[in-house]
Amino acid sequence: MDTLPSCHWEMLCIFGTGDLGRSLGQRLFQTGYKVVYGSRRPHSCGPLPPGTQVQSMIHVAAAQSARLVFVCIHRENYNFLETLAPQLKGKVLVDVSNNLKKNMYPEANAEYLQRLIPGAQVVKGFNTLSAWALQNGPSDASRQVYVCGNSLEAKQAVIEVATKLGFTVLDRGSLTAARELEDFPLQLFPEWRLPLQLATGLTAFFFFYLLIRDVIYSYVVNDKDISFRIMASLANKVFPIVSLIMLSLCYLPGVIAAFLQLYRGTKYKRFPDWLDRWMLCRKQLGLVALALASLHVLYTLIIPIRYYVRYRLAAHTISQIKENKTSPFDTTMAWRTDSYYVIGILGFGLYLLLGITSLPSVSNVLSWREFSFIQSKLGYLTLFFCTFHTYLYGWDKFLQPSSYKWFMLPGYMLSLVVPSVVLVLKLLLLLPCVDSTLTRIRQGWERTDPEQERKKLLLT
Amino acid sequence: MDTLPSCHWEMLCIFGTGDLGRSLGQRLFQTGYKVVYGSRRPHSCGPLPPGTQVQSMIHVAAAQSARLVFVCIHRENYNFLETLAPQLKGKVLVDVSNNLKKNMYPEANAEYLQRLIPGAQVVKGFNTLSAWALQNGPSDASRQVYVCGNSLEAKQAVIEVATKLGFTVLDRGSLTAARELEDFPLQLFPEWRLPLQLATGLTAFFFFYLLIRDVIYSYVVNDKDISFRIMASLANKVFPIVSLIMLSLCYLPGVIAAFLQLYRGTKYKRFPDWLDRWMLCRKQLGLVALALASLHVLYTLIIPIRYYVRYRLAAHTISQIKENKTSPFDTTMAWRTDSYYVIGILGFGLYLLLGITSLPSVSNVLSWREFSFIQSKLGYLTLFFCTFHTYLYGWDKFLQPSSYKWFMLPGYMLSLVVPSVVLVLKLLLLLPCVDSTLTRIRQGWERTDPEQERKKLLLT
Amino acid sequence: MDTLPSCHWEMLCIFGTGDLGRSLGQRLFQTGYKVVYGSRRPHSCGPLPPGTQVQSMIHVAAAQSARLVFVCIHRENYNFLETLAPQLKGKVLVDVSNNLKKNMYPEANAEYLQRLIPGAQVVKGFNTLSAWALQNGPSDASRQVYVCGNSLEAKQAVIEVATKLGFTVLDRGSLTAARELEDFPLQLFPEWRLPLQLATGLTAFFFFYLLIRDVIYSYVVNDKDISFRIMASLANKVFPIVSLIMLSLCYLPGVIAAFLQLYRGTKYKRFPDWLDRWMLCRKQLGLVALALASLHVLYTLIIPIRYYVRYRLAAHTISQIKENKTSPFDTTMAWRTDSYYVIGILGFGLYLLLGITSLPSVSNVLSWREFSFIQSKLGYLTLFFCTFHTYLYGWDKFLQPSSYKWFMLPGYMLSLVVPSVVLVLKLLLLLPCVDSTLTRIRQGWERTDPEQERKKLLLT
Predict the structure, then answer these.
(1) Which residues of B touch A330 (CB under 8 A)?
(2) Contact C321/B321, CB-based, under 8 Å?
(3) Under a CB-based contact definition with an 8 Å cutoff, are residues C301 and B301 in contact?
(4) How far apart (Å, rounded) are the C-alpha atoms in residues A167 and A137?
């Protein structure tokens, strides 16, 4: 007792002396718990964590010694636990195990354990932590412990231990959530996959499209090698195009959903699955688009320090002098380019604001009225600015035949299709008559088809 | 029982089958609760949430069936609840209602409900969530549920339900806080209103001031149309001016408060209301100023790609060649402009740091000594850098008569007034004798006027 | 009772009417508690918080009146509490005191208090708050209250009070943590000290190194005063150099640790202290490096608006015309400079991503697999991009003898040493045979030296 740090907390039992079991035991011991390891033969549990004063007992004795038993062994070895069922009766079994792949087994490890030893109270927990966090306590990405289990008392006991180890505990309900918890450490940005794939696909498409239209066309037709433009000029066309399309794709599902609700006359019918999934990744779509927009900004700002640009400007000045003619100052041009840049800056500023408010700690302090104001109202404003910025970029280029090389539309025109459609549809939804109907539907009102009504009455 | 998902939690009763009641019921059912709706006649509560297996009973039976009753009806219809007082006695009534406007009624809905049914334990809660969050569970801006109520046990029961639904619960104390909770969903950035109004006002003023001084003056006096400069050049003067003034306004109230404390000789007298309100919106003032400063940075960085600037530079080079004279390199000019830019960059960098540390999740991990170090010490340093940046911009322009067109001072001079005053006052406060007195006052020491002391003694 | 706001919560006692005691009393009263101050003589506790209706009793009576006693007096005055031991028996004593310096006393104030009055249940708490937060409730940097104590019930009572005051409570375990809590308000970015010192040292070194190499060399050898370049050009060399070195220093300890584990054949041996400390400040190293990289970006972007650069460009154009020769367009140069800029932008973009994911609220929502993916995989990619960016900057400069002024290597070469070493070592670790061994070691496998094994067996 004297060698224990500060507190004399209860005794805990750990089954399994693999990495997980040893890390957990070390941390528990350091926090002030008495830890005992279960093993097949007494004093044979292999190398125990250095510096710890833990005991090793045979399984039966170990199981009896503590109220909480941490199961840190692989699922394949669970069956031996069945023989300990009498000793484990009424105990809290904390299943810390993880699998190597998703869907390896029909039921979650914790549920399997509960089925093996029905008399015990199985709690899933700690499995979302890295061995590093188990050994050293909470760190940056490992502050939260998720637990689930059918017995409230058992969960409470586990929560107490986790809190004492310094973690924040989130109760995820009954043991049916175990599957979800076991999948959690295996996941790698699941909600980012679709937006990233989309961004990659669009980027690749527009890269090759513009490569053909600009570089290869110039090589074939004009016999001029401008391949050096791939690095910066071409990328600075691809990024804003993809960014604008993805930004508009954030707002398209909302518009589609509104029209679907208007058509159906109720909000109580489920959306099709693809629409649901689309709506759930809007935040990620927007953030990927923001990243691309930021790249576009940086690519644009380095324009004047690029060798190619400096060379061209100097060459232009020199040619003006040699030909002894000075082009007059074009006020329209000044207005147009300045507007083009300024609208772009304002759009990007709003965009950054949307990004900042989607930080978890910022969105947490907003009321949902504030959140929806920013993400909806300011979001459409951002989309409008960015679309307008692109229209200003185009200006009267669509009138020049040289814009249609090999009958391919310039990239910026393609990028304008989706955002323009979204903005027009949104304008339609803002018409007073449409808006009021939609608001009523969203407040729970349902348009009842007179015929259907009659049928219902007949049925009852 | 068999069709219920996983857990068999207690039965809950919901009054009201509007949008709110139905969304809440659906979510409660999905989480594993048994839900019963109260209605006037049995089995007549209207369309229930699709896919749910909820019952509908007459009000009396429904109220008796559950310990928790969610009241999701409009306040105007509360009076019928009075007839259920015997059944609701000892029950927990969760008031989920919201009003359409602030201050519609003299007392909060929840307090009114408590007055109607004194035997029930009224808890205000869930009303800060959107119907969407109620139906689908926690999402970005809707993780937190606020509750308040006079009975600790009743609150505990509600907190348990909310936790099971996946929300984080914040206890806001007794039922007197209900008014605040009912106002919460109606608020739209209340603490941002003043700073945004100020920013708009200042921006408008300086825009028209500089419009007259630069564009209109040039049109009237020199007959030159430089209106195209409105878009970028003028804006890039207005933004930094307003930003600097607003940054200094963040620090002015602190300085005023310090002088007030020095004058009064105590910290235990309340500040005037306007000063209190001013101090409470300093963070928002600073963030709006940071947004404007960021726009200033972007506006400045696009300078070299603007048509107007490129034209002017080329024209300058051409004129030099034609007149066959080259202006010599001016080392002072190089020092001055580089210093001007560099000080601006450093000021902006510090400014960004202040912005980042004001993110909730960052400021939460700082000790208050660290937070005050950053927001005060680094804050004044930022103000100093930005003011110095503006002085360097001015340099010797104040000596040139051409700066005073139509007897109007240049914008940058106006912007320097408040920051210079703040910095001078702060320097005064840093004088050792003043500083030590202020520190003592802030530690609770009070300067006692000898005369007052005597009066006090006479009175006691 | 009637004048109390809303709730009739229990009575609390405060010892000490200094700044802390008065602020705390005011807040407690406003929240609805009855507050009584202990004093030597009845009704003589000095000026009480304005507007509060608190009583002042002699210490004995005050101590008896409440279950919770807040001790807001200096440690030096604790000894008088010993005389109150009979009255304080079984009470909860909340030690709110702080010291002026670290390590002033051999034991923490709270532990000293517990020793003085063994019969009381001492809880350390509230001391991490500023007096301002105590008086006005939670604000930006003061939301969290840390408590520690040996009695769970006593802590629970304190947690309840803190929660009612609006704070978030974190239980830090037993009273041995009191020392840590008392040190907390005194700390000023302890984990940032080393990285900031390193950054300052490296910046100073490279500043003087490049000052000699560029400016002084030019002055001595060419008799040309280019001191104006200190402000922007020199700084824009120093910042990226220091940033790259510090970024690579984030990844060096991980590589060293891996080789150490490979050499030792186990992960269960502790790393040397210097390595542990180094690894713990990697996040801060990286963020300081990010700040410097951001400055480098801004310094680079203002290049085209600098007077010196504009002058040089114009002079170059003019000289070309005068000599009537035009330098041909150099495609390699265009490729090279564009690649150099683009790689830099991509590196900086990834770098920003690393910075954003290290925000507490963002890293909290990541699983540790996701966190380690970003901080490790994307981190090495960032290091690679930034190193490659520097190599592209150098290009063939190392071939030109003019690069070695006074036998001093150019700054960028020095900056490439550490990152190149780190990248090569990391590549070695990624070799399949090395990688698989390391993975096994990290999963808990230990290489057992056959000789050692034998020795062990002999010993047992």
Answers:
(1) 307
(2) yes
(3) yes
(4) 8
Q: pLDDT tens-digit profile of A218-277?
A: 899 988 888 888 989 999 999 999 999 999 999 999 999 999 999 988 877 788 989 988
Query: What are the residues facing C147 on neighbouring strands?
Result: C125, C171
To the nearest whole Å, the CA of A185 is away from the closest chain C CA by: 6
Closest residue to B358, CB basis, from C140, C291, C315: C140
Out of A92-96, B321-325, C296-300, least confident range = B321-325
Alpha-carbon Rg for chain C, nearest whole angstrom, is: 32
Cβ contacts of residue A55 below 8 Å, gap of 6+? A35, A36, A37
Instruction: Assess A144–C contact: CB distance below 8 Å, yes or no.
Output: yes
Note whether A320 contacts C: Cβ–Cβ < 8 A. Answer: no
Q: How confident is the model at residue B393 (pLDDT cuts 50, 70, 90)?
A: very high
**Which strand (E) or helix (H) includes residue A94?**
strand A92-95
Position A167 pLDDT exceeds 50:
yes
- Chain A neighbors (3+ CB pairs < 8 Å): B, C
Across C2-26, b (16+ Cβ under 10 Å) vs e yields eeeeeeebeebbbbbbebbbbbbbb
CB atoms within 10 A of CB B11: 15
Alpha carbon separation from C85 to C56, C60, C146 (Å, rounded): 20, 10, 26
Q: How many residues does chain B have?
A: 460
What region, left, alpha or beta, does residue A93 occupy, with left being phi > 0 and alpha being psi -120 to 50 degrees?
beta
Which of A150, A333, A371 is the closest to B141 by Cβ?
A371
Nearest CA in chain A to B361: A361
Question: What chain C residue is nearest to A361 in terms of C-alpha separation?
Answer: C361
Query: Distance, in angstroms, between A460 CA and closest chain C CA?
Result: 50
pLDDT value at residue A450: 63
DSSP string, B291-353: HHHHHHHHHHHTGGGSHHHHHHHHHHHHHHHHTT--PPP-HHHHHHHHHHHHHHHHHHHHHHH
Q: What is the ipTM of this complex?
A: 0.83
Task: Provide the shortest C-alpha distance from residue B334 to chain C (in Å).
Answer: 6
Closest in B173, B337, B361 to C7, CB measured: B173
Q: What is the pLDDT of residues C369-428, one digit of tens each?
A: 888 888 889 999 999 999 999 999 988 888 888 778 888 889 999 999 999 999 999 999
Structure tokens at C362: 């963002």
Kindly report the pTM of this predicted structure: 0.86
Span B53-71, average pLDDT: 78
C-alpha atoms less than 13 angstroms from C-alpha of B345 in its C-beta half-sphere: 24
β-bridge mates for residue C94, sequence order: C70, C123
Strand ranges across the sheet with A55-58: A55-58, A34-39, A11-15, A68-71, A92-95, A121-125, A144-149, A168-171
